Amino acid sequence: MGDKIRFHFLGIALAFVFATVSSPAQALTVYEVKYASEADVLVYVVDYASQADLRIHWVEYASQAKGDALWHRVQYASQAQLKIHYVRYASQAKLKIYPERYASQAGWNGPPRGLSTHRR
Asked: pLDDT tens digits for 64-91?
């Protein structure tokens, strides 16, 4: 019963965030929170690109990127479009990522799921 409620709440939260999407011309600004309860998305870093839902590339400036796959790390939670928390096990994650060396390699594996749905 608890899982059903949690997944229903997650669906409602995603729908709300869909409605409040920021401008797509910006990088996805990300803040790493200490506790899972503070996060918008629980993230697991996989060992191989083929295991990932999303292959990401970290950029130095927010103005360098567009879309879900190019992430920019911010200093403060209030600056972030997405708050993430890294989990220890893949089964705990809502999103599996693989950091790519080059921006041209970043993107979704399979159909895009619209990570922008999590943005504030």
From this structure: 867 889 999 999 999 999 999 999 999 9
Question: HSE on the CB side for 111, CA within 13 Å?
Answer: 1
DSSP assignment of 84-110, as one string?
A: EEE-SSGGG-SEEEEE-SSGGG-EESS
Instruction: Count helices and strands (H / E) in the chain.
Output: 1, 7
Residue 106's closest CA among 52, 63, 70, 67? Answer: 70
Rg (CA), the chain: 14
pLDDT at 66: 74
Is 13 in a helix, a strand, or coil?
Answer: helix
Residue among 105, 97, 107 nearest 45 (CA) = 97
Contact between 108 and 56 (Cβ < 8 Å): no
- The pTM for the full model equals 0.72
Nearest-angstrom CA–CA distance, 87 and 98:
14
